[in-house]
Amino acid sequence: MSERTAAVIMAAGKSTRMKSAIPKAAHLICGKPVTRHIIDACREAGVEDVIVVVGYEAEMVKSALGDDVCYALQAQQLGTGHACVQAIPYLAQDVSRVLVLPGDSPLLTPATIKRLLQFHAEQNCAAAMLTAVLDDPGNYGRIVRDAYGRVCEIVEAKDATPEQIAIREINPSVYCFARADLEENLGRISSNNSQGEYYLTDVIGFLVSSGRGVGALPVEDPLETLGINNRVELADAGSIMRSRILRELMLGGVTIVDPATTHIDAGVSIGADTIVHPFTLVELGSVIGSRCEIGPFAHLRGVTIPDGGTDGRLAVPDSSRMVDRCG
Known about the structure:
Blueprint: E1 5-11, E2 28-29, E3 32-33, H1 34-44, E4 49-54, H2 58-65, E5 70-73, H3 80-87, E6 97-102, H4 110-123, E7 127-133, E8 141-145, E9 151-155, H5 162-165, E10 169-171, E11 175-178, H6 179-186, H7 201-209, E12 214-218, H8 231-251, E13 255-256, E14 262-264, E15 269-270, E16 275-276, E17 280-282, E18 287-288, E19 292-294, E20 299-301, E21 304-305, E22 314-316, E23 322-324
Parallel strand pairs: 1-4, 1-6, 4-5, 7-12, 13-16, 14-17, 15-18, 16-19, 17-20, 18-21, 19-22, 20-23
Antiparallel strand pairs: 2-3, 6-11, 7-10, 7-11, 8-9, 8-10
Helix pairs in contact: 6-7
């Protein structure tokens, strides 16, 4: 990656629909906080500079996410544009591109982030953004295109006309900006809308009206763009992520006897030719070698299990109790 890119992740909101004293960014999904998944995806995509914008219960969010990122404080939650402004002073001088992502979309993959960065470079545009087509667009912002199919504006659902609400192409709030264009136009946004907030989407409108290029890249799997606003969506995202984890393990040579009753956290390592039996839970930090046999009814947390022998399997059988931090 020739240009130095920084990621700005939005994690300042209160998220009242979670009905929780715990900030949404700190809720766990497959063993890791929601926003940590986005941080790790950025890093795997090659983006080392990560700035997380925090606000509500900022110290709790920082404690959950770790100290390997930079934090910018949004003391008042005045919208995504205002949040982005808080992050600008933390950008390194030689950063030329700014990736902006929501902190509540943990299903976004490193591959998709790489595609967006490559698309931005190939298009040589001021901004590039992901879009997705959903059967139920809900409260997502709508992508408005002109007669030539070019993006002309993004309209927030609460400000949209009935015709615009009918649009199924949505804005998942994942952007890549040329830094200079972003900084120049952030100062132009206002809070003259139904929410009284400063929308980052207005920057897209300014760039279009000034003739600067804005590219739109449809995401290959719309599920990647799903955000989390309540406990139902948290569970739905967890189910999708667990399926991904189990699929990757099985393609890597691990036998999962019954995926429907097997829960394995993100970041767990399991060697080839290991068999995982039904009703097994393996939590974050566990490392299981090759040719092992786990379960059924095993609950492992932070364990290290060596490879099984060539003449037989190292078994953790029929465990109805949790094995914790054994080596």
